[in-house]
Amino acid sequence: MTHRPLDESLRPVRPHPVDALWNDPPTPDQVDPAVLSALLHRHGWQRRGGAAGRYGRWTPPGPGGGGTSLLVPESRAFPDSDDLLSEALVALSRSGSPSARDVLVALAVPSDEIRWWRDVPTGPVGAAPWTVEEQLRAAARQMLLAGALATRARAGYYGARHRRSAAASLENVLVGAEPGGRRLTAFVPVTTGRPLAVRLHQALYAAREAIDYQRATGGMDAFDAAVEAGVSHELMGALVALVRGTEGARIAVEWAPSAGVPEGGAAPAEPVEFSPGDLPVLREAGARYLREEPSVPVRLTGAVVRMRRSGPRGEGTVRLRVLAGAEVPHVRMTLDEEAYRIAGHAHLVGLPVRVHGRLESRGGFRRLTDASGVVPVQVDEAERDRLMKSLQENLDFFEEACSAD
Fold this sequence. Notes:
Elements: H1 18-23, H2 33-42, E1 46-47, E2 55-59, E3 70-73, H3 81-94, H4 98-108, E4 111-118, H5 130-150, H6 163-168, E5 174-177, E6 183-189, H7 190-217, H8 221-226, H9 233-243, E7 249-254, E8 272-274, H10 279-292, E9 296-308, E10 316-324, E11 330-335, H11 337-348, E12 353-360, E13 367-376, H12 381-393, H13 399-403
Parallel strand pairs: 11-13
Antiparallel strand pairs: 1-2, 2-3, 4-6, 4-7, 5-6, 7-8, 9-10, 9-12, 10-11, 12-13
Region (Disordered): 1-25
């Protein structure tokens, strides 16, 4: 069996599905006129008159927008409201404005929008190196993951803990970037992702306050309290990646108009700004979280996937695929001769083992120290067959274990 290395970069969140939404806009009966107007305003469209109480005339942002306009009813109280909505949606689907795509996405998938801006030096005619956009995407992805981790537990440093479930929660996040690599928007579906948006919103404000406190007093105490709001080593790393190489960066969370402002969210939510002058504090806080996160006592149940020792006797190292007891995919541990033998025999008959120890923060919570009490665990036949199949695919890993006995 081939296992993906734990330090491998996360799979990117799904790209902006512009093609499907561009060619198949929502139907008028699915659209609330008030929500459409709110989204147009959010994305820079300008209201330029219209019959008061009946409809508004909206033009897109940027130069040349005056030649295009949408008539959007203010409610469904008038007979022609569905016709106006239908015409507005078709016009949006045919518009060349990037903001039109964002409006259609937000209509099709009611979402909280997380926006990132980076002030980066420009080249000729406003162009920027292609690496600028990649840096923005990577930093945004790290920040979303930090927010997802904070919805699962509060910790100054997560390492490998909760990473798998946090990454899976980003599967439905949609991403749209503007040309030039200076701005990016993530559409976080309200139905599945609102806790992520709320937690990230709170964590960013707490991080900003902790930085200001440190720069004013020289103390790092505010970062301890900020953990409860979702601030972590992982968030510090994402902010460093976002700000590094820029003249400044901003992040804003805007709530889905159809769902309203959540409890604990500000309305309106002003962008949170970070500057290159914050980098030393961000790095110091990240290192502090990494250094001070304690080890965790655990009782793990796991399947042995690798065994190794230098000779036919004595202690050896064992790698477990964790089945229960901790939110990490794998751990390594050092076992004495007797425990090593028990682990090898358990695997050879298709059984997982249970072990007590401390999940060590150093190395990302991937190592179990003070391991003791190794015992086989009975499982149902289906699970046992699966474990036996895993053994057959990994016999080379167990030559040493077999020869040791």
